[in-house]
Write a structure and sequence with these properties.
Diaminopimelate Epimerase, Chain A, domain 1; five-stranded parallel sheet; 2 domains; six-stranded mixed sheet; alpha/beta; inorganic pyrophosphatase (n-terminal core); single chain; 311 residues; 11 helices
Length: 311
């Protein structure tokens, strides 16, 4: 499906619920909220599924789109959700349309608009909004700027291409406040986050002549730093700062003695292939998975799998 046919499909729907993914980032929340706003401008009744895991700095941008408890949708859209396992906590049921950019998408929806060549789902949603409404509001531009920049690491990640930069320019022309948003999402952090980063850097370990970098984040570290989930945004980017590293892996304590794994890499390693061995997925240079073992045991399993993937 192309953006134009997707927009035509949406014009025929009403009472729409947009669903984001668990542990939501700026792309899923910003893209879904921007599309929700555009649908409302088209006269549709549209809401976001109330994802209660949204971090504090994102919440003011999206919470006024959350559905009331009594809302019963006739049409369900997922935004930036690669698999059914990633649905926001508490959501279940059939999905009518999926809008996504993950190459590992499991094709669970009745209809889909998927473009794995886009740096962020926000770029795809921008195309849909153009087809729906022609122009953007300032709020929609801000939301899509959040979506794009958080998935591109403020244009530092390898997925930043010419199309992403042209998209950013268009969003600025539509009123996106890049100065304020860059400060909020990329420049300013809490004192607890700074302390947590210090503990993470001290925990890093290096393998394969430094080409593989591991960072382990434990609940004890969060306690020592006085950090909360609001201080844990984009921890996966820290290990990738090591200049010798080709693959950086961040492992977090997860409930029930499990581990949440985030993998980042250069073009010479397939992060998605590594995570797929453990039921995860994502992109070639950015992927994730969960392992049913504590972080140290997870590190050993990942090291073994790296030898098999990195042939």
């Amino acid at each position: 499906m192309k953006a134009e046919s997707c927009a035509a499909l949406l014009k025929a729907q009403d009472r729409i619920l947009l669903v984001t993914h668990r542990n939501p980032d700026g792309d899923t929340m910003g893209s879904a909220a921007a599309l929700c706003s555009a649908l409302r401008r088209c006269g549709k009744t549209a809401y976001l599924y109330p994802n209660r895991q949204v971090i504090t700095k994102l919440l003011p941008f999206v919470e006024h789109y959350f559905a009331p408890a009594e809302f019963a949708p006739d049409y369900v859209i997922t935004v930036d959700v690669a698999t059914e396992k990633m649905f926001a906590d508490g959501f279940s049921g059939a999905v009518d349309l999926c809008i996504d950019h993950h190459p590992s998408n499991s094709h669970y929806a009745a209809d889909e608009l998927i473009d794995p060549d886009r740096a962020a789902t926000g770029e795809i949603v921008l195309d849909v909004i153009r087809a729906l409404c022609v122009s953007l509001t300032k709020d929609e531009a801000d939301l899509l700027y959040i979506a794009l920049t958080t998935d591109c690491g403020c244009f530092q990640y390898a997925n930043t291409d010419a199309h992403a930069l042209r998209t950013a320019a268009e969003l600025l022309e539509a009123g996106a406040d890049n100065s304020r948003l860059n400060q909020l999402f990329f420049r300013k952090v809490s004192a607890a986050r700074l302390k947590l980063e210090g503990l993470i850097y001290n925990s890093m370990s290096f393998y394969k002549d430094g080409k593989v970098v591991f960072a382990i984040v434990t609940d004890d570290m969060l306690t020592q730093a006085g950090a909360t989930e609001d201080d844990c945004d984009d921890l996966a980017g820290l290990a990738g700062r090591a200049e010798c590293g080709s693959v950086s892996i961040t492992i977090r304590d997860w409930p029930g003695g499990a581990s949440k794994v985030s993998v980042r890499s250069g073009a010479d390693f397939d992060s998605c292939a590594l995570c797929a061995r453990f039921g995860g997925g994502g992109h070639k240079m950015a992927a994730g998975c969960n392992l049913p073992v504590p972080p140290l045991a997870a590190r050993e399993l990942l090291l073994e799998a790296i030898d098999e993937v990195w042939a």
